[in-house]
């Protein structure tokens, strides 16, 4: 079966939901959401902690509450969606092949596509930790689902590897369920999560944070019995003689998220090796015309509100393309992440209007106190902004005017003042 569609959105997490609502409100009647699970909402369904919605709804919500507000809008607006639908392929012609129990195999031919597939967790296999393979080793998201959705307690004593936000939140969650969290170990010399989560999830519960430490061996037969941790040097290599055995029956991994871009690669979309997401312009359009990306499939965000805001930008751009209001750029400008900057989004500026205000998101590559960010073009400084502190865990942004860009390449750098 073949269906022609104006706009197809893959994924119904916060990015997909926000994009669908914005597109429908902007006058696109034919919007289709494709979701592989049996409910809308994505990962938000299991995020029962608060902290969502502060930017968008001006109040603090749980993940399910945040999702329910968008799901309600989707249903009120009559937006079409398909649950239990797995997208199995997509090509550069925006032909999307999907399968579900109700419709069987369907090919959706879309005018525009918004990618909102989110991300997945990095598992133990990617870490290559020596030792046995016992039960009791979980990614943070899997443990979160067991506790918050299934009502199961996955262990009694835990050690958490990685200080990403979900790992920090799960440290608190496990403590609230009566588990003993021995420590959170972080291989870097600085935390990977937001400062508020360090305070609220670790310090408030007297959970130690061991910076520059990692797990070097796993012990146990059928069930995890303990792990050996060690301090690491500047090259992130374990320091001999610093090994320490920690008895625990659960190892929780919070060691990074990977954008789900298998479909993107299949469609010939160019991927940024640093973010793991698509290379996009300021309209969030990928290297394949008519395909847009937003949310954690583009780059991993620290706040869900920013995911939804970005998704609305992608929807706005897709709507303009569908309505034939898109313009051909006068020139294309490359954004380069220089010293002190890990990556930028967008990576490309398509120059349409000299008065356009362009927002560029970035992350620093290291912790920098009393710093400044500069933007240069053809050796000339066109923008400077001072920061009290930059940390890799927190996304920042700057705004520049298109008319200030005189060449075809700009460089963004961060340094101490």
Overall domain count: 3
Mean of the pLDDT scores?
A: 95
What spatial form do the alpha-carbon principal axes imply?
globular
Main pleated sheet: 7 strands, mixed
Radius of gyration: 22 Å
At the fourth CATH level, what is the homologous superfamily of the largest domain? Answer: FAD/NAD(P)-binding domain
CATH topology of the largest domain: FAD/NAD(P)-binding domain
Distance between the termini: 61 Å
At the first level of CATH, the class of the largest domain is: Alpha Beta
**Second-tier CATH architecture of the largest domain:** 3-Layer(bba) Sandwich
The count of β-strands is 27
In which range does the helix fraction lie? 10-25%
Give the low-pLDDT segments.
none
Classification by helices and strands: alpha/beta
Compute the number of helices: 7
Provide the β-strand percentage band: 35-45%
Describe the structure.
This protein is of the alpha/beta class and 417 residues long. It folds into three domains: 2-120 and 258-326, FAD/NAD(P)-binding domain, CATH 3.50.50.60; 123-255, FAD/NAD(P)-binding domain; 333-416, Immunoglobulin-like (Sandwich). It is built from seven helices and 27 strands. It has helices spanning 14-25, 63-76, 140-148, 165-176, 195-202, 262-266, 304-322; strands spanning 2-10, 31-34, 50-52, 61-62, 80-82, 86-90, 95-100, 104-115, 119-121, 137-139, 157-161, 180-186, 209-211, 213-220, 224-231, 244-247, 250-253, 257-259, 291-293, 331-337, 341-345, 348-351, 357-364, 368-377, 380-390, 396-401, 409-416. A hairpin with a 2-residue loop joins strand 24 and strand 25. Helix 1 packs parallel to helix 2, helix 1 packs parallel to helix 7 and helix 4 (165-176) runs parallel beside helix 5 (195-202). 44% of the residues are buried. The model has no long low-confidence stretch (mean pLDDT 95).
């Amino acid at each position: 079966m073949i269906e022609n569609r104006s706009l197809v959105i893959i994924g119904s997490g916060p990015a997909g939901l926000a994009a669908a609502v914005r597109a429908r409100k902007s006058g696109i009647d034919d919007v289709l959401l494709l979701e592989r699970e049996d409910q809308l909402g994505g990962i938000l369904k299991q995020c029962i902690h608060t902290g969502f919605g502060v930017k968008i709804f001006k109040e603090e919500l749980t993940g399910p509450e945040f999702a329910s507000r968008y799901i309600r809008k989707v249903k009120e607006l009559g937006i079409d969606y398909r649950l239990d639908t797995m997208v199995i392929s997509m090509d550069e012609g925006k032909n999307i092949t999907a399968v579900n129990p109700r419709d069987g195999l369907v090919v959706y031919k879309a005018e525009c596509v918004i990618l909102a597939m989110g991300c997945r967790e990095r598992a133990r296999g990617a870490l290559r930790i020596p030792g046995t393979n016992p039960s009791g080793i979980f990614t943070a998201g899997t443990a979160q689902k067991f506790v918050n959705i299934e009502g199961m307690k996955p262990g009694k004593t835990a050690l958490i590897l990685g200080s990403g936000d979900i790992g920090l939140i799960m440290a608190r969650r496990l403590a609230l369920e009566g588990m003993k969290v021995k420590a959170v170990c972080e291989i870097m010399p600085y935390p990977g999560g937001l400062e508020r989560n360090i305070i609220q999830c670790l310090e408030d519960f007297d959970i130690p944070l061991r910076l520059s430490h990692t797990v070097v061996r796993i012990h146990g037969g059928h069930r995890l019995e303990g792990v050996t941790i060690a301090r690491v040097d500047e090259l992130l290599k374990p320091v001999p003689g610093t090994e320490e055995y920690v008895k625990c029956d659960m190892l929780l991994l919070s060691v990074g998220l990977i954008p789900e871009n298998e479909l993107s690669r299949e469609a010939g979309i160019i991927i940024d090796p640093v973010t793991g997401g698509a290379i996009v312009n300021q309209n969030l359009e990928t290297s394949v015309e008519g395909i847009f990306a937003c949310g954690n499939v583009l780059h991993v965000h620290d706040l869900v509100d920013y995911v939804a805001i970005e998704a609305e930008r992608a929807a706005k751009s897709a709507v303009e393309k569908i309505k034939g209001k898109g313009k051909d750029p006068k020139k294309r400008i490359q954004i380069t992440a220089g010293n002190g900057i890990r990556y930028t989004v967008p990576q490309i500026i398509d120059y349409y209007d000299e008065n356009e205000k362009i927002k560029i998101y970035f992350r620093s590559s290291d912790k920098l106190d009393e710093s400044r960010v500069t933007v240069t073009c053809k050796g000339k400084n066109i923008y400077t902004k001072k920061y009290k502190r930059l940390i890799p865990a927190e996304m920042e942004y700057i705004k520049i005017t298109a008319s200030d860009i005189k060449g075809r390449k700009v460089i963004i750098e961060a340094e101490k003042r």
